Amino acid sequence: MPASEAPEPEAQPSSAPASTAARGSRPAFDPYDPLGLDDLLSAEDRAVRDTVRRWARDRVLPYVAEWYEAGRLPAIRELARELGAIGALGMPLTGYGCAGASAVQYGLACLELEAADSGIRSLVSVQGSLAMYALHRYGSQEQREQWLPSMAAGEVIGCFGLTEPDHGSDPAGMRTRARRDGSDWVLDGRKMWITNGSVAGVAVVWAQTPDGVRGFVVPTDTPGFSAPEIHHKWSLRASVTSELVLDGVRLPADAVLPGAAGLGGPLSCLNHARYGIVWGAMGAARSCFEAALGYAKEREQFGRPIGGFQLTQAKLADMALELHKGILLAHHLGRRMDEGTLRPEQVSFGKLNNVREAIDICRTARTVLGANGISLEYPVMRHATNLESVLTYEGTVEMHQLVLGKALTGLDAFRG
Description:
This is Acyl-CoA dehydrogenase family protein. Keywords: FAD, Flavoprotein, Oxidoreductase, Transit peptide. This protein is α+β, with helices and mostly antiparallel strands. It folds into three domains: about 40-150, Butyryl-Coa Dehydrogenase, subunit A, domain 1, CATH 1.10.540; about 160-255, Beta Barrel (Butyryl-CoA Dehydrogenase, subunit A, domain 2), CATH 2.40.110.10; about 265-410, Butyryl-CoA Dehydrogenase, subunit A, domain 3 (Up-down Bundle). It has helices spanning about 20, 45-60, 65-70, 75-85, 105-115, 120-140, 140-150, 265-300, 310-340, 345-370, 380-390, 395-410, and strands spanning about 160, 175-180, 185-195, 200-210, 210-220, 225, 240-250, 300, 305. It has a four-stranded antiparallel sheet with strand order 2-3-7-6, with helices on one face. Helix 6 packs antiparallel against helix 7 (about 140-150). The radius of gyration is 23 Å and the shape is globular. It starts with 17 loop residues before the first helix and ends in a 7-residue tail after the last helix.
C-alpha cells in the first residue's frame, strides 16, 4: 500500500552514541500502517495475509455490493471450495487436511476477509471456528475422519445450531430436546439465526438431554431436518442465514459428540469464533478508514480537498488511532492464544472493544463521505450495517460487559 512522503530524518546530534547513529534513517510514515505493525509479522504471516487479501480482492470485492443489494450470496458453494483451496477453512486446526496455521495467521485471514465483507468472514468463522472446531475438539475419531477433510476442502459446508428463537444470550434455557429411543437419539426443536444453515451438509446441534446439554452431528439430509432461509435482513445481506427445524430427527447413538458435556462445549466454540471477530471487525474498520482517507484527499469543497480542513483531519486521526490500537490488541490476543495463555475474559475484552470501535469508525467515515457515504459505490454503509449484527452475535455488548465485570469484581451479575 502507498506511503506518504515523510520529512527528512533529523540529523543525529554529534553527541549521539555511535550505536544510535548506526541504526540508519527512519522509514517514511505510512498512513496505512502508522504504527509499523507489519514489523510484528513474520514472512510466513505476511504470506498468509497476502494470499487471503488477493483472494478477497479478486473474488469478493468486485461483486459484493451487488450481492449485498440483492440480499443473497449466490456463489457460496464455489467460494467455499476456493477458500478450502487456499487453506482458510479450519485454519488453526491440525490434521484432516487443515492448515495448522497459527492463531495470528488465522486472525490476519479474518481481518482480510471482513475487509471485503462481514458475511464472507462469517462463512469462514462458522465453518472453521464453530462446526469444524467442535468436531475437532469434541468429536470421535470416526466423526473427525468422516467430516473434517471434506469440510477443510470446502466440499461440505457446516453450520452450528445453538441460538434459539427465545434463547440467545442465555443458551442454558434452550428448548431443543434430545431423547433416547432404544439406542437412537431423537431431536426436536428450533434454532435461529444460523449462518450457512440452508446450504450446510452437516450441522452441529446442541440440545438438552437428561444428562445435560450435548452436541450432535446431524447430516442435513436426515428426515425431519429442514433449514428455511431467513430473508428481509438489513445486515449481513451477503450471507446465508437460516432457521433450523428439527421435527423428530432420528440419529444413531454415535451421532453425539463424546467429548462435550454441558454448556462448556458450545461456549468454548463460541470463544474460538469470537477471537476471529476481534480481528475481523478491524478489517471492516480498515476498509472504511481507507475509503474515508482516499475520499478526503480527492473531494474538494471551498476550493481545496476536504482532507486539508482541521475537522476532517481530526476525524481521520481519531479513526486511525482506534483502528490500529484495535489491530494491536488483536495481535496481542493472538500471541497469547498461540502460547496457550489466552483467557475467555480477554477474548471478551477484544470482542467488546474492537466491534464497538469498528462501528464508530464506520459511522465517522460515513460523515467524511457525506451523502456519498450511503452509496454502495463505497463500502462504508455496507460495513456499518453488517457490524450491527457482529455487535450482537457471539455475545452482545451487555454480555461481554458482564463477563468483564465479573472478572474484575468477582461478583456474578448475570442473574442478579
